[in-house]
């Protein structure tokens, strides 16, 4: 079997890592394409995966349309020659369009119901859609998805990230971090370049939080791109962490995570580290899953976030258990099922 996996965002590298390895170990031929965006290429090289770089990310709406169109064209030519039996992606805009056009069965992993434009462009074309049961089915159906093609599971996509995770308790030392205070907070800025969030990449909701908490704890910041790195440069007691690094061990070693995004917050929650989400948009259903299960706190008020952070730094609670399904097996089984269905006429 020949499987095409398209990777369009940095967290997707970790998401697909064990899936890729498993398929290769089973003797399947895995073709990986990736666009140029954030740390995708560096992470792919870090994990030792061979891939073909096709296309890049656009910033403005016009650029997004242009770059996606160009990428779909290049992918169409590439995939037409490779002739895979099935395509697999997580929120790739182009893979469903290319597989649909070439009659190739597709499996699509979804966890963001707020990415309405992207969902309208992709979900109506997908053969198999895998999504958390916490997402309202109607939110997905109204973008054109066929409910008969949807598989739902308990949990969120981040549960698959820790399939073979080994904690490195010496991560601070390995990164040669000079930490002067007893407590350490890891922060992640908002996804300013995402189409579903109206934000300025030269500003961050974390700035006023950093300005206060830097006097109480070591602050580590993992920016998404160069502009965010510049926002926090020059602050005392603030360290910029440049990926790729072992972020899982880093999150687990830290006393608190404050994130204006989504994926890293949910990963930290699963690792048992206290998390405060200050995402500036409407919370996703997958975030509400962790909030309602007591694994994540949520606020966009600076004073409330600061007070909450100071309280959590001195009263860390034990991790709660949550029941989840085996997402890894669901995806693997869906890939084989889609491939067995044969080319679409």
UniProtKB/TrEMBL annotation:
Write down the SUPFAM superfamilies for this protein, in alphabetical order.
UDP-Glycosyltransferase/glycogen phosphorylase
Pfam families, per database record: DUF354 (PF04007)
Q: Which InterPro entries does this chain map to? A: DUF354
Where along the sequence do coiled-coil regions lie?
none
- Which protein is depicted? DUF354 domain-containing protein
Q: Specify the species.
A: Methanothermobacter marburgensis (strain ATCC BAA-927 / DSM 2133 / JCM 14651 / NBRC 100331 / OCM 82 / Marburg)
Give the lineage. Archaea, Methanobacteriati, Methanobacteriota, Methanomada group, Methanobacteria
